[in-house]
Amino acid sequence: MTTSPTLGPDLVQGFPFPFPTDQYRYSTNVEPARGVVGTPVGQWGDAVVDIDSEYLHELAERARILERDPSRATALGHMGPACWDTMLTLMRELATSRPDVMSLVRDGEQHVWTNRLLGIEQRFTYADDSTLPTDPLRYIASQVQEDLVLLDQRDDDLWGDAGVVTFAADWSFGFDVGMTFLEIHGPVPRLRETGVITRARDFLMRLQPGQPYRRTNWTLTIGRRLDVSTEIYHEWGPDRPRILTVSDDDFGREVHLRTEVQHLIRLEESGAVLFLIRTYLLPLEVLATIEPWRARTAAVLADLPDDMADYKGIATFRDRAVEWLHSRGARETPRDA
Q1: Residue 333 domain flag
Q2: Whole-angstrom Cα distance, residue 25 to residue 303?
Q3: What is the pLDDT of residues 127-185, one digit of tens each?
Q4: d(Cα 177, Cα 332) in Å, to the nearest integer?
Q5: Residue 321 pairs with which residues in a beta bridge?
Q6: Cβ atoms within 10 Å, residue 50
Q7: Which of 70, 92, 120, 307 could form a disulfide with 115 if both were Cys (CB 3.0 to 4.6 A apart)?
Q8: φ and ψ at 258, to 5 degrees?
Q9: How far, rounded to the nearest angstrom, does the alpha carbon of residue 126 sit from its chain's CA centroid?
């Protein structure tokens, strides 16, 4: 197995390969969080909030996106308590999973938060915005690689009323703010017909504090681009037809399997549901060196129904990806005549 010159070994060893079988269809596919998943090259899943070698780069990219488009961070007025709840919850997760570089200490009426990776030591009073350099949701979003969406539960429904989303995959958080869970997922084909989205909403509404769950989602992305939101479609949309014209070597370098690990957490103080979305990218040229992943990805893409391929935005180059993956398969050595 080889890695791209710009790809740290931990990004391959910790990559969450999303296909348990040779066929993919929409499902709730939830499981308890923190369970370690072994792979042919490593493992993933032991932490709710994951930090890897892209930490500083991805946080810098988030800051750049928010400076250009502040609407990517939005919280409706009633979501203040949930935003504070989110910040403290994620600080506790970070301090638990990375005690070598993170800590959260209670000091009387205040907390002291330390993030040695970023050189931060912040004293704050819970629910007092004046004790932080920015609002609590944006503050913690600047220290995690995950996108954050907060679902408020009221009127027997879930509403996407706050979040910081800079790495969306062909959707717009700004457009979705204030919508119900079912409205947000309305464009996804087959979800209503199969009942998947209704079951997912019912599951989320039954979530209990202290019992986080997770699921995976996936697509293909051209280039190592985290932000493929609809707001900037004009920047990345032309890559889809262009990728059909590049050489085979460039195709393998540019096309990435994009996995989202999504954590679902019922916040204890506010009762809101925190939806974490962490994005991982692996170029096909690296994926193809791991034989079980190469073969399974080719099988999944070949079997994927056209409407699902179209929704994921991969219909134009899906066939070439399948052919490319097949061409990288293990070849038998010819026998002597």
Answers
A1: no
A2: 10
A3: 999 999 999 999 999 999 999 999 999 999 999 999 999 999 999 999 999 999 988 88
A4: 54
A5: none
A6: 22
A7: 120
A8: -110, 115
A9: 28
pLDDT digits (tens, 9 = 90+) for 106-123: 999 999 999 999 999 999
- The Cα-based distances of 240 to 56, 228, 245 in angstroms read 29, 12, 10
Side chain identity, residue 141: A
Q: Which H/E stretch holds residue 201?
A: helix 196-205
Task: Tokens 């080719």: give the residue.
Answer: 298
Structure tokens at 272: 């809101």
User: What residues are annotated to the active site?
Assistant: 215
Task: Say which amino acid occupies 54.
Answer: E
Phi, psi of 12 (to 5 degrees): -90, -50
Q: How many residues does the chain have?
A: 337
**pTM for this prediction:** 0.94
Domains held by the chain: number? 1
> Range of 282's domain?
9-327
From the list 312, 259, 263, 299, the residue with the least C-alpha distance to 281 is 259
41/315 Cα distance (integer angstroms) = 29
Assess if residue 285 is contained within a domain: yes
CA nearest neighbour of 310 among 187, 168, 228, 222: 187
Q: Is residue 71 part of a domain?
A: yes
- Per-residue pLDDT of 221-273, as tens digits, reads 999 999 999 999 999 999 999 999 999 999 999 999 999 999 999 999 999 99
pLDDT value of residue 182: 87
- Report how far residue 269's alpha carbon sits from residue 127's, in angstroms, rounded to the nearest whole number: 12
* Cβ atoms of residues 273 and 264 within 8 Å: yes
Which of 212, 281, 204, 208 minimizes the C-alpha distance to 46?
Answer: 212
Of the candidates 59, 8, 11, the one whose C-alpha atom is nearest the C-alpha of residue 282 is 11
- Distance in angstroms (rounded) separating the CA atoms of residues 205 and 319: 39
Within a domain: residue 335? Answer: no
